[in-house]
């Protein structure tokens, strides 16, 4: 029985995954200011040259880490049309995923919080938050059109509030996992947004 040789792309993808995981572990353990390409290479067991080849700079590594940590965070949304159902599934799924958040997502939340005072992080996370808000705005706008969300809802304001709530719950979960039961919260938070967005104005 022979083992097929890995392709160059497979080797490259495996190396990048290992490097991103190593970077995430270092962020969680020591913070972003202690992150260097040399430390990432040492943690992952690769040469400094390979890290530089993949990312080129610490800034590029942080950008890639910010993108990688959010990819597929809430599964099952692909193929769903924009609207209230997809919005509520995203909220529910995000909170459910926080219950078993891995090192990549812990790193994302820590980096997101640090972006408020770290100049090298601020542009990265402004872009990530805007992409998140854009997805939410699409759902809210579609639901207003089809009548499932009340017409006076302001998509941008609602999107800002939802992102703030979800990220804030995630940070609380990191700080005190025992106090933040995301499995119980997901039902309450999802129902809160259902009622807030669908009830008629008086």
TrEMBL record:
* DNA-binding region coordinates: 36-55
Report the transmembrane regions from the record: none
Q: What InterPro entries does the annotation carry?
A: BetI_C, Homeodomain-like_sf, HTH-type_TetR-like_transc_reg, HTH_TetR, Tet_transcr_reg_TetR-rel_C_sf
Keyword line: DNA-binding, Repressor, Transcription, Transcription regulation
Domain of life from the UniProt record: Bacteria
Q: Which residues form the HTH tetR-type domain?
A: 13-73
Listed name of the protein: TetR/AcrR family transcriptional regulator
| Protein species of origin | Pseudonocardia eucalypti
């Amino acid at each position: 029985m022979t083992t097929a040789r890995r392709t160059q792309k497979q080797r490259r993808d495996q190396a990048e995954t290992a490097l991103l995981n190593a970077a995430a572990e270092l962020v969680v353990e020591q913070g972003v200011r202690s992150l260097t390409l040399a430390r990432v290479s040492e943690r992952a067991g690769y040469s400094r040259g390979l890290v530089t080849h993949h990312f080129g700079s610490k800034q590029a590594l942080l950008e890639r880490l910010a993108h990688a940590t959010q990819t597929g965070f809430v599964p099952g949304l692909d193929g769903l049309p924009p609207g209230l159902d997809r919005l509520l599934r995203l909220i529910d799924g995000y909170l459910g995923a926080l219950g078993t958040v891995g090192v990549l997502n812990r790193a994302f939340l820590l980096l997101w919080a640090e972006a408020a005072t770290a100049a090298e992080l601020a542009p990265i996370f402004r872009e990530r938050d805007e992409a998140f808000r854009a997805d939410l705005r699409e759902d809210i706008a579609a639901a207003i059109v089809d009548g499932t969300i009340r017409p006076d809802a302001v998509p941008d304001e609602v999107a800002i509030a939802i992102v703030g709530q979800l990220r804030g719950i995630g940070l609380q979960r990191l700080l005190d996992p025992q106090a933040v039961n995301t499995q119980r919260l997901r039902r309450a938070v999802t129902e809160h947004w259902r009622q807030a967005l669908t009830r008629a104005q008086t």
